[in-house]
Amino acid sequence: MTRIVTSTYRYKRPSPKRKAQAAEIPQAVVKARKPKSRHVVQLEEARAELPETEPPANDDRKSAIVTTVGRKRSRLRRIEQALARRASSGDSSE
After folding, report:
1. Which of 15, 36, 75, 94 suits a disulfide with 40, CB 3.0-4.6 Å?
2. Which residues contact 77 (CB under 8 A, 6 or more apart)?
3. Taking the CA of residue 52 as centre, how many other CA atoms within 13 Å lie in the half-sphere pointing to its CB?
């Protein structure tokens, strides 16, 4: 014999929301911050103890934005150049 499986879905209304309460004093609501871990506190203390270092004298370099050609495009360009060299070297021998 096979079992007959039935399921029923019963809608359950959501619980009622609580009404907002008026505060006697105007207050700003701020999300609570997590307390700093012991390791973070120790790290900050160690950084505070380090002496301030000045940048090196040759630090007057300017940053530059470098753009490169994609790998696929550069590979195709190399193949085209190689084919052009073969074709030009084949023409000079005839």
Report:
1. 36
2. 69
3. 1
**Which backbone phi and psi does 42 adopt, to 5 degrees?**
-65, -40
pLDDT one-digit tens code per residue, 3-23: 777 788 888 898 888 887 777
Distance set, CA 49 to CA 27, 44, 56 (Å): 38, 9, 21
Amino acid at the residue 5: V
Termini Cα distance of the chain: 90
pLDDT of residue 5: 77
What DSSP string runs through 3-45? PPP-------PPPPPPPPPPPSS-----PPPPPPPHHHHHHHH
- Which pair of structure tokens corresponds to residue 40? 């973070």
